[in-house]
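Hi P.,

Sorry for the delay on this. The queue was packed all week, but I finally got your sequence through. Input first:
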Amino acid sequence: MTKTSKLSLTVKQHIKQSSIPCTSMIVTIFGDIVSQHGSWLWLSSLIKTLEPLGFNERQVRTSVYRLVQSKWLQGNKVGRCSYYCFTDFAMAHYEKAARRIYAADQADWNENWILVLPISVPDEKKEEFRKSLLWQGFNTLVSGLYAHPSCDTSSLDEAIHELGLAGNVIILNGSVADLNSQSVIKALIKDRWQLSELETNYRDFLHFYRPLCQHVLNKQEKSGQLSTTDCFLLRATLIHDYRRVLLRDPDFPQAMLPQGWVGYEAHDLVKRMYKVLAELSITYIEENMKNAQGNLPEASNKFYQRFVS
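Then the structure:
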């Protein structure tokens, strides 16, 4: 058994041991890959793509059906062949996530806090709005007042617009007035945002991916022949696991985090490895993944802006 096939086996075992759902992996495949190569994918091609990761045809078909029912995928049948792409809802959600997943570096913080005060949100929208705020990294400082230290309100503005809540929410900007208050709020962050649990998630991520990525880098430095299949599988799993951890991360500025925050190391590893794996996996994608016109087209220009400053 070659080293590259050992890498594939390791990735497959990791997916099984981590109980990664097929539906979640399909979302990653469409977000990270298909969205950048023409948007549509043949179902049989998706089945073939996921087989090396341990997902069988029945699991893929069932997961695709569920994603269609939940409005994440839409289908189109041409003859006896079925093709799928993200819905507008899924693409909007993906674009929000992509801004963070593929960010080159964290934006400079202006020491400003965004405060969100829901005033008269209809009962049927309260839970959806609360979940949207939590997903964006907001949490409650006191009952009914959500806060996040950020200089970017784009995702917040989009959520308010999508839910039709422009006249139901007050958004305020503020800053911490003194050092004592800053110490209090930093302690509050550690508790309310459960940073210890997040730190553990990042450490688990690094424990698994450090040796695999080092193997790939060593092989590349020695001009070794890297399997395009292995690079594709590792890329898909790397981004999937990073997405799962990152989207639980409130994305705090360095001043609000413990010294030596492990999330920065995770970001640097993904940024460095993605450039290597993406370049090599494109050959696999364009040769093995198909839509109604044949092989998937070349990656969009937007793809090459990922992790670029």
